[in-house]
Write a structure and sequence with these properties.
The complex is a heterodimer of chains A (333) and B (179). Chain A is mainly α and 333 residues long. Chain A has 17 helices and two strands. In chain A, 32% of the residues are buried. Chain B has 179 residues and is α+β, with helices and mostly antiparallel strands. Chain B has one domain. The chains are: A mainly alpha (333), B alpha+beta (179).
């Protein structure tokens, strides 16, 4: 194997050419070369380092609003704010508007409701990143805060499925309605805690979050389910025609969680002294949340039906007795 | 040494060097099937268990020639396991060429109930194809968002962006060290 000088020159030329071509490729890294990938240079390594670091900084910063998030948060705040306003005004018609907003915006438009999966996520620390879900965190924060302040307000006004079934109850003629007897109702309300407990235990044992599909119907707003899910939903809605708010009262695991939290309720519903003997509110309550003189906070969704009655001077015995006493007591001047 | 055997030797040494560091592990059948769909020009795949667990794809231009590295691929859940979407992690297989260009994305598995409206639609993974790791790769800039599923789309995009950048950085640093 002898190498002539001309072959060496040829080899050198070839190496020089390869080197030049390589250099040109590196220089042209930014240029459009869709077919032959140009190798990345060390400069790109530095650029990558900077980008990766920047990304991690954004991860940590909490106040990173983009336009989309701002719109999301504003609209959600408006819906939540209106719900609070309707609650504070104790207005039946405003509550109806609030339901429609929840069904339309939180339901069919955003398909974003508090779910048992959020409880799973909190348990294993796998909640969404804050910068991806500012609106989501606003909803969670509102739900927790309003539950501690007033009780299960979320269930009564914000939850799109709850709003939907309550609206169904207004539309469906009452002759279809079957009210479970008190002894049964008293026991059935604990079923939702069993559902929640079982779901949490199952999740902790298996790590499977998909169980939400079969224990809550909130996915319906995405109109994206399998045959079994749609069948279960149809059965549930049909049953709700006869037993109002069936899901919320007996089956909802989120309601169970909020029910536990609502034991801390700060601003409770006032009761008159007369409430110990009067059954008017107890009979009116759609939620079975009144038992004699007591209000079961974990069942009450702050629908305001009883509070409107308290204020009604023509119906509530508290005012009737006062008027009666006033009429029959001789005035002492 | 002939002019023909020299490049061959370099290739063999390069593969040996990669092999020595990479501690190749078995690629499961399911992973290989997914990889083959994403990088059709590759013949063999190798699993590399580094800080950024990933796959390397090799192709033989001719049946008798040595396989050459043609691409990298990774599962987002391996490199960015802490990126959570609305209902947990989104498992995606992302393929890169050696120049840091995304050559394909496949959504493998997720729990998102809103999937149908966002990442399950072919147009979500498709829009990453041909984008470079130095591109913004951000929802609202060069990636389309879907209002209904912002959490899902944002998290999926971040997992792809951060994973692709980290793997490319690791690969580049390794190449620089070899030089």
């Amino acid at each position: 194997m002898t190498q002539t000088p001309s072959r060496i020159v040829l080899a050198c030329c070839a190496m020089l050419f390869v080197g030049l071509a390589g250099g040109a490729a590196v220089l042209g890294a930014g240029a459009a070369q869709p077919d032959t990938p140009s190798p990345l240079s060390l400069d790109d390594l530095a650029a990558l380092d900077a980008l990766i670091e920047e990304d991690e900084v954004t991860d940590d910063s909490l106040v990173e609003f983009d336009a989309g998030a701002l719109v999301d948060v504003t609209l959600l705040a408006a819906v939540l704010g209106f719900a609070l306003y309707s609650f504070k005004r104790r207005s039946e018609s405003l509550k109806l508007v609030s339901w429609l907003l929840s069904i339309g915006y939180l339901g069919f438009y955003k398909a974003s409701l508090v779910s048992v999966v959020d409880i799973f996520g909190a348990l294993r620390g796998s909640l969404p990143a804050f910068q991806d879900g500012q609106a989501y965190y606003l909803l969670i924060a509102f739900t927790l805060a309003s539950t501690v302040l007033w009780g299960r307000l979320y269930c009564g006004r914000i939850c799109a499925f709850g709003a939907l079934t309550q609206l169904m109850d207004r539309i469906i003629p009452s002759r279809f309605r079957i009210d479970p007897p008190a002894w049964l109702d008293k026991r059935l309300v604990y079923l939702k805690y069993v559902v929640l407990g079982t779901a949490v235990l199952y999740f902790l044992a298996s790590g499977d979050t998909l169980v939400y599909r079969y224990i809550e119907p909130f996915w319906m707003f995405t109109r994206n389910g399998n045959a079994l899910m749609w069948t279960l939903l149809a059965v549930l809605l049909l049953a709700t025609v006869f037993v109002r708010n069936l899901y919320c009262r007996y089956l909802c695991s989120v309601g169970a969680g909020l029910g536990l939290l609502s034991n801390l309720t700060v601003f409770k519903i006032k009761r008159w002294g007369e409430c110990s003997t009067c059954k008017l509110c107890e009979k009116t309550c759609e939620w079975g949340a009144i038992n004699g003189p007591k209000i079961l906070v974990s069942e009450c969704v702050r629908c305001d039906d009883c509070e409107r009655l308290y204020a009604d001077e023509d119906q509530c015995p508290h005012w009737l007795i006062q008027k009666h006493v006033a009429r029959h007591t001789p005035r002492v001047v | 040494m002939s002019a023909r055997t020299f490049p061959l030797l370099v290739c063999v040494l390069a593969v040996a060097a990669v092999g020595a560091r990479a501690q190749p592990a078995a690629v499961t059948e399911a992973d290989e099937a997914a990889l083959r769909r994403l990088i059709p020009q590759a013949d063999t795949f190798e699993l590399v268990e580094t800080d950024s667990r990933h796959f390397r794809a090799y192709a033989r231009p001719q049946p008798e020639s040595e396989p050459t590295l043609v691409g990298l691929a990774f599962f987002t859940t391996d490199i960015t396991p802490r990126v959570y979407a609305y209902k947990g992690r989104i498992t995606m297989l992302v393929a890169l060429d050696l120049a840091g260009t995304v050559t394909g994305v496949r959504v493998v598995h997720h729990y998102e109930p809103f999937g149908y409206f966002s990442i399950d639609m072919p147009k979500f993974p498709k829009q990453f194809k041909g984008k470079h790791v130095l591109d913004p790769l951000e929802v609202g800039q060069d990636i389309d968002g879907v209002s209904r599923a912002s959490i899902t789309v944002e998290a999926a995009t971040r997992a792809i962006r951060q994973g692709a950048r980290r793997l490319t950085r690791e690969f580049l640093a390794e190449q620089a060290a070899d030089r």
